[in-house]
Amino acid sequence: ADDILGTLALKAAKKGLDVVIVTGDKDCGQLLNTNIRIYDPRKDLFTTVESFTEKKGIPPEKLIDLMGLWGDSSDNIPGVPGIGEKIGVELINKYGSLEKLLHHAAEIKGKRGEKLRECKELAVLSKELATIKTDVEVELELEKAEMGAPDTAVLREMFTDLGFKSLLRDLEPETARKEEARKYILVDTPDKFKAFIKTIPHEKHLAVDTETTSLDTMVADLVGISISTSPLSGYYLPFRSPEGENALGEEELKQIGSILENPEITKTGQNLKYDMKVLKRAGIELRGIVFDSLIASSIIMGHIRDHGIDTLAKRHLGIEKIPTTDLIGKGAKQVCMDTVPLKQICEYACEDADVALRLEEVLAKQLEKRNEKHLLDDIELPLSLVLAEMEYTGIRIDCKLLKKQSDEVAVVMDALEQQIYALAGHEFNVASPKQLSVILYEEMNLPVLKKTKTGASTDESVLTELAAQGHELPEAILSYRTYAKLKNTYLDALPELVNADTGRIHTTFSQTATATGRLSSRDPNLQNIPVRTEKGRAVRAAFIPENGWDLIAADYSQIELRIFAHFSMDETLLDAFAKGLDIHRVVAAELNDIDEEDVTSEQRSAAKAINFGIIYGKTPHGLSQETGMSLGQAKLFIDSYFERFPKVKDFIEDAKYKAHQDGFVQTIMGRRREIVELKSGNKMKIARAEREAVNTIMQGSAADLIKIAMINLARRMKDEGLKARMLLQIHDELVFESPKEETEALKEMIREEMEGAMNLKAPLMVNIGVGKNWLEAK
């Protein structure tokens, strides 16, 4: 966008026009000249060549030289660490340009000179990234720039996707709800229910939705059920209502339950995994599910985060649903759904079922058009049934052990706090970034590596780099934060989440939260339990099975590397996996041109970093930060890798090229991910998007793989009548609990199904452990 802006501005200026660029982006200062000014609408301020030069201390054309040193964290332009704007201006004014400065870098003494010499390549790259192109192939036809009438259909879809609710209201101020012919029926008496129950069993397909007292399915009571069998129609069956007025009873619930449990009557809905669990607690097993608009939307538009039914109704049907807050309010004044008057809740609930039914037709067509219907039918819908069962089952935890660990961590944190005070020279609020910033940059004069809107950053990446430079306080702060997160997020929080009825914690798995198709976990998030520290790993010891049972943990060995070898078809990698060799040792031997038995632990670690770094698209800068190599060494290491493994390089370049051509990438099962930023004019964003493209193929394919394994395992465990249960999925790992007499059979079943889930060119391998807790099973 900046490149197009710059090109158009210069074209217009050359035509003798008085040009104003409306932007708050400081990078555009380089475009200023006698015919071009900049207007910042937030500050109501015009900038000219003269005012820019007076404020910055350099002319506009020297801004890119300055940014080569200073960088820009908002655009991921690194600059030279430790050199800020003030020093940068002095150096550019003294030497005239970045290139001349770098040419004389040997003359500059102290850490400043050392950084300039060490980061020459980074500075040149930063200047290149900061330079706005003014020769983009775009024509300036002023007559075509005249304002015309808005295209409301295009704007509606765009505003919906971006969440611009006020703009949507401005676009259609009268109302977006245009249907007067809705037929929503309240079934609130035995006679009405008898009439309803006579007709509904003859339906072949229906949409279902539940209203409840809570978003937590493990404590929620069923308030009502809504059903829609044709567009613009619906029934609402209340089972709780204000003061019990006109609520149906156990007999009616049993009869509607027989409909919902009948697999011959197929079902659709929005986020049916929620409804499955709510109905299960009410004694009903929801069967015959053939569609879910939430999951379908996430398959079609994985790059969009909001797949809520209100958003989908607006995006695909052009209607604005009744907001939930209209019924129950929000904040401190929010009421429970069973207190809402029946007439009001009837319209709201029937609309939910009605919209879900209509969304099925629209989204099913899109899935067919994209050749992704199989993802819904064969993977995501069957998986939602497995996940509902896992969430409903939950997992036991040892609260006494967590309390003991919390007390131990508190002692460590107290000691760290005293150490931090000693290093800082006085006491302060260790949890306050603002106070820490003052100490680091004003009192201790440490170099400012990254700026934020409120000042100098104290985030993890900055503290890590400062610690690597030998500064003790940032290192101590990092340790303190690690322990504080462990204590607050897990040791203290998990016992509070134990369900009073089941004695277990019940996480929720999301199939729609990631662009790659990976599952995520929330309330609590069990996929982010720390594993790098001893005390972090120890948290897993608190996860325990049913009394007298075993806990089994099974995880894929180096799954993404095996998928990478499968796609790249590199003979060396495939041969190593086929022979069961240590892949990192094999790569280290290749890169260092030595025999495998001569590989040192340091060489293997470096090879491991690059093996995973190649998948995740690490740059020489990123690899040098992770391994401690110099930038030059890291670049040489990556170049050497691609020379030794040319098919890997070919695969990556082909994947990037295809992503640019198609605008998306696909996993091994054909799951698409649109890579929007490939169209960006910003080189850093394009590079990041290319890394995302390659990584999505690997990570998304690994997600497809374990989902298939979970579906097959759950089906087989049920078919063979096992009492064992699948409890957790943590990316490449599955956790089970099993009666001791079933453990050996289950282990064999797990190995067969996980290793046989897909037929890859690189054979799959699963590590399986058994123990009395999760840590021991690892």
What does this structure look like?
This protein is an alpha+beta fold and 778 residues long. The chain is 51% helix and 11% strand. The strands form 7 sheets. A 5-stranded mixed beta sheet has the order 4-7-6-5-8, with helices on both faces. Strands 18-19-15-20 form a 4-stranded antiparallel beta sheet. A hairpin with a 4-residue loop joins strand 6 and strand 7. Helix 12 runs parallel beside helix 17 (373-393), helix 14 (309-317) crosses helix 16 (342-369) and helix 24 (559-568) crosses helix 31 (683-719). It starts with a helix and ends with a helix.
- What structural class results from the helix and strand content? alpha+beta
Overall morphology = globular
Summarize model confidence as the mean pLDDT: 90
Low-confidence stretches: 174-178
From the alpha-carbon coordinates, what is the Rg to the nearest angstrom? 30 Å
Got a strand count? 20
Largest sheet: 5 strands, mixed
Proportion of helical residues:
40-55%
Q: How are the strands ordered across the major sheet?
A: 4-7-6-5-8
Distance from first to last alpha carbon: 49 Å
DSSP summary: helix tally:
33
Q: How large a portion of the residues is in β-strands, by DSSP E?
A: 5-15%
